Give the backbone structure.
Amino acid sequence: MAERDDLDQETYDRLIAAGKPERIARAKAKAAAVRKQREVTGGQDAGGQEAATGDEPAGNGDGAPAPAKEPAGVGAASGGPMTAEERKARVAAALAQRDRGEEAHFAGLSPTRRLEMAQPSGTQRIAAQQADKVYTWPHLIGAEFVALLAMLTFVMTFSAFAPAPLQELANPNVTPNPAKAPWYFLGLQELLAYFHPMIAGVTIPGIVGLIGLILLPYLDKNPSVKPENRKTAYAIFTIFLVGAATLTLIGSFFRGPGFNWTWPWIEGIWFVL
């Protein structure tokens, strides 16, 4: 095969001998020829202008040779390829022209990129919003462990000083007066002193316990656990807790024989643990 000017024959033969397809070998040989031509002309494309290699330039139509164009990147004073210092100077001058709004000439220069550092004061930092959550350990478990120790200390101290003896066997023929329920049922027993058993034992507990718990998620939909964001839920629970505690205390200390009202500081306490 005849050697072509736009192919690097050595690269082409090497790729063909290595079993590469002719299309790939031709493309890589052409790229190798372009690189060699740029090295000779100082960065100018291989087919763009005549290289200063001693070849006679083409005529201008009347038989006289046309003046050879100076290859891009050739110094005006020396007539040879530009040095690295000259190239840097030309690039700096072109960039300065562009910054002043003038037309910048980058012909014959290697492509350059200009990077600028943004001022830190001109940027905004967007931080992630702190979620209303905490880790289970150590925040939750630590607080629960402290509460456990405090309650254990209270129960042990109370059981050491509060009298709680075993009484005699229950006699079905003798009903104690007053007959009081355990302390956790004294609130319901206290309601029996004011309302009919159907109202006090079924209706009120059903409305408060069943229907109230069903409606509570619809009355307050805020997922936050902070008291200032859950005023409705905290108010409902506080009313329920204070009401239950009040009824329990009345049934324990202010009810005597026949479950009548008594003053504990006058008639004594009719309550046994």
About this structure: DSSP finds eight helices and no strands in the chain. The first helix runs from residue 9 to 17.
